[in-house]
Known about the structure:
The protein is mostly helical. 66% of the residues lie in helices and 3% in strands. It has one domain (11-212): Rhomboid-like (Rhomboid-like fold).
Amino acid sequence: MYIQRNNITPPVVKNLIIANCVALLATTLLPFKDDIVERFALFNVVSPLFHSYQVFTYMFLHGGVSHLFFNMFALWMFGRQLEYELGSRRFFTYYMVCGIGAALLQLGVGYAEYAHAVEANGVRAAMHLLAIPTVGASGAVYGLLLAFGVLHPNNIIMLMIPPVAIKAKWFVVIYGLMELFFGLSGYQAGVAHFAHLGGMLWGLALLYWWRRKRTIYF
Length: 218
């Protein structure tokens, strides 16, 4: 098991959790909650609901309490250690790059799916794809998992389901392969698997760029 440097949640992780919780309350309790989703969730790039700022705002919205809980739990578990090591400013940059990178890959895949559906079945049959929003911090969180596996490859992670211990590097590889399989196969429809992969890929690229600049070492 890895050991936290202290029990205090660092500022970026804490404020990200607060922002996500406030956003869920807004989309649950406010009378104009549907307007919030339509404006700030991530929509297909050819949808009339799409706005460029959604690549940032979508990661603060969630589909429910369980969706929020698992993302924030992972952010808290892995983000604290990473923020202590990278520093708050660099950690925030990393988190945002992973989240926005996840959105960009999701947009690319979404556009390809829409174009294929139009070619196969016509525009009318493909229109429903333009109204499906993507929400959640999962892309950024998968980037955090990737970073933990790269910086601490031999640390042991205790899984909840199934309850087994596994090295961080294998944990990342297994999750990455699972997301690739689910994304290509179409299983678990309704989950943005390519956004998860996008967060991991952009995170990996940024870590190695920082290492090449010799601002971090691993």
